[in-house]
Design a protein that fits this description.
Elements lengths: L5 H12 L4 E8 L2 E9 L14 E3 L4 H14 L9 H4 L16 H5 L23 H12 L17 H15 L3 H13 L4 E2 L2 H4 L6 E5 L2 E5 L12 H4 L1 E4 H14 L10 H9 L9 E6 L3 E8 L5 E7 L4 E7 L4 H18 L2
Antiparallel strand pairs: 1-2, 1-11, 3-7, 4-7, 5-6, 8-9, 9-10, 10-11
Helix pairs in contact: 1-12, 2-6, 2-7, 5-6
């Protein structure tokens, strides 16, 4: 048996006391992976130990990848942050509400275009659109733009929206002439050598990780057939999947980038824009600049009910932490919060 450090004992105790099924986590600096570990099983009731190569469903963390792809296309000169949505889709303008006439790539990505949220996937179950994924995306957008605009929550100047990210992805497709999924693979898989995919892990492979839901008081594996149906046009908003070490590499690009050390991909100013360009929510990332001795924090969570993925970055400390679990019940999420504190205490000095 491999000897455990004290922090590993604490993590093991937290995971067991909150009855997690499985978890992977990593701590990174911009220059290196500090630690990466896997704990538990892929599916409840089966002895299939998790490994570092196992993918997890990222949920809304997918937005960080979509925003980064947009930034790369801006740097390539294929589109601008202030490009108007209707400059690329003029045929939709006459049937769309006036409230959306000023939507741009940037306001779609930072949720300031006030696009209807469509965060309740059940509300989409009866929507069907014919054609390719790209065609379905555009038909969905036409439907969205006919709906009444939402009102931001009190004290907030944005409305978080899956549909807004679908619109942004459609703009990237139109500007580049390439389907969004192909763009993401070319810019992330091929150029960064970071392995991404789309969909639930146990739909991509029979040996893939299962998500879990509480049934009769116990976490039960959700089969590939039972997985929530994510409509193909929603991929840019919430349907990426990745393993923890590849995700750690992803965080390292941000940590290096905000130090001006990833200029091959994006300038330092663009990484600042992605993470901290707007108060509370920038481009794919939540942020807080006034906590923990004024140290800036960027974070992102993703879940559609069966996985929970959490990441937090402290760019001024050159530190990133990600924790992926294959359940999303309140007790599971509480475990993630406690494990994050352990990792920060151990590696955030």
């Amino acid at each position: 048996m491999v000897a455990q450090n004290n922090y590993q004992h604490l993590i093991d105790s937290i995971a067991k006391s909150h009855q997690l099924v499985g978890m992977t986590y990593t701590v990174v600096h911009g220059e290196k992976e500090v630690v990466a570990a896997a704990w538990g099983n892929k599916c409840a009731g089966e002895h299939q130990p998790l490994t570092l190569s196992d993918r997890f469903h990222l949920g809304a963390i997918s937005k960080t990848l979509t925003a980064w792809v947009a930034a790369r296309l801006v740097e390539q000169g294929k589109i601008q942050w202030q490009t108007s949505f209707f400059s690329l889709f003029p045929s939709l303008q006459s049937t769309s509400r006036k409230a959306y006439q000023e939507a741009t790539l940037e306001t779609l990505l930072n949720h300031r275009a006030m696009i209807p949220a469509f965060t309740n996937l059940a509300s989409l179950e009866n929507l069907t659109f014919e054609g390719s994924v790209r065609e379905q995306r555009e038909k969905f957008i036409a439907y969205v733009l006919q709906q009444a605009p939402p009102t931001p929550p009190a004290g907030q100047d944005y409305v978080y929206s899956h549909a807004g990210y679908v619109m942004a992805a459609a703009m990237l497709e139109k500007a580049s002439g390439t389907p969004f999924e192909e763009l993401a693979v070319a810019l992330i898989n091929e150029e960064l050598a970071i392995d991404i995919n789309f969909g639930f892990p146990n739909q991509l492979s029979k040996q893939g990780v299962c998500g879990h839901q509480l049934k009769n008081g116990k976490l039960s594996a959700v089969s590939s057939k039972e997985n929530v149906k994510i409509l193909s046009f929603l991929v840019p908003a919430l349907d990426f999947s990745m393993n923890i070490q590849n995700y750690g590499k992803w965080l390292r690009h941000y940590l290096l980038g905000i130090q001006g050390k990833d200029t091959k991909n994006l300038p330092q100013s663009v990484y600042e824009k992605l993470l901290f360009g707007y108060k509370d929510y920038a481009l794919g990332w939540n942020n807080n600049q006034k906590v923990e001795n004024k140290m800036r924090i960027a974070s992102s969570d993703g879940s559609i009910g069966t996985f929970f993925c959490h990441t937090v970055m402290y760019p001024d400390k050159n530190l990133g932490i990600a924790i992926f679990i294959n359940s999303a019940e309140p007790a599971s999420i509480m475990a993630v919060q406690q494990i994050q504190k352990v990792l920060i205490k151990e590696f955030g000095k």
